[in-house]
From TrEMBL:
Belongs to the guanylate kinase family. Residues 11-190 form the Guanylate kinase-like domain. It is an enzyme of class 2 (transferase). It comes from Gimibacter soli. This is Guanylate kinase. GO terms for cellular component: cytosol. Its EC number is 2.7.4.8. Essential for recycling GMP and indirectly, cGMP. Transmembrane segments: none annotated.
């Protein structure tokens, strides 16, 4: 067997969740820029686009009617109501990515993570991002300057609820320094990629090594 076959593996479904503003989007963008093996799941949402957000790249911005049709047609892998809007993960692109041997990163809330855990537990790696303090979280949401005061207030009011789900995750990172947090995320992904159950070619490789070893 060639060493190339040994590299074959099941894709990782890497989930990032956090209270709004803790840094999921920032970390996701950085990972996508630095790692050609991972792609991002682009969610559909009924919320308005923020300035600079691009349809099809940041989200698929769709109407409530279209969202309902997609739910009725089972087009979502998971979906949830978050901050008075609907959000969902389109099923097709995730399946395509995993089939082509890519890893896929999801920026979704705890409700979506629970749904993915029911349908894809073996492939899932769940990372929860905490802010260093609630004061920092609010500063980040305000300095992002993309949401109205009312929206920021609503998100801050829900932060404790979101944080209460931290222990449902495999890893918890405190995003104090973005460079340091990013490095930790890279290490998590590297270690998860090496897990035995994901490495499809490993048993054939080990069997062949043993056969050769026994012949000596
Ligand atoms: N470690 C950090 N230190 C300081 N600022 C940060 C850090 N990480 C992210 N930020 C900034 O905080 C703001 C919010 O980050 P980001 O948009 O990535 O959060 P998010 O978790 O994706 O939020 P949401 O759930 O609302 O989409 C951004 O302006 C980002 O540049
Ligand atoms: N369950 C899901 N949650 C999602 C999805 N896409 C995004 N989200 C979460 O919504 C909030 C708000 O996001 P924002 O872009 O409006 O700031 C945040 O917690 C996201 O993680 C999804 O497809 N499913």
């Amino acid at each position: 067997m060639s060493l190339k076959n040994l590299e074959k593996r099941r894709g990782v479904m890497l989930v990032l969740s956090s209270p709004s503003g803790a840094g999921k989007t920032t970390l996701t963008r950085r990972l996508l820029e630095n790692d050609p093996q991972i792609v991002s799941s682009v969610s559909a949402t009924t919320r308005e686009a923020r300035p600079g957000e691009v349809h099809g790249k940041d989200y698929f911005f769709i109407s409530h009617d279209r969202f309902k049709d997609m739910v009725d047609n089972s087009e979502f892998l998971e979906h949830a109501n978050v901050f008075d809007n609907r959000y969902g993960t389109p099923r097709g692109p995730v399946m395509e990515a995993l089939k082509s041997g890519k890893d896929i990163i999801f920026d979704i809330d705890w409700q979506g993570t629970q749904q993915l855990a029911e349908s894809a537990a073996d492939d899932l790696v769940r990372v929860f991002i905490l802010p260093p303090s609630i004061g920092d979280l609010e500063k980040r949401l305000r300095s992002r300057a993309q949401d109205s005061d009312a929206v920021v207030e609503k998100r801050m009011a829900r932060s404790a609820d979101e944080i209460s789900h931290w222990s449902e995750y495999d890893y918890v990172l405190v995003n104090d320094n973005v460079d340091a947090t990013f490095q930790k995320l890279v290490h998590i992904l590297e270690a998860e990629r090496l897990k035995r159950r994901r490495r499809i070619g490993l048993s054939d490789f080990a069997r062949e090594l043993m056969e050769e070893g026994r012949k000596r």
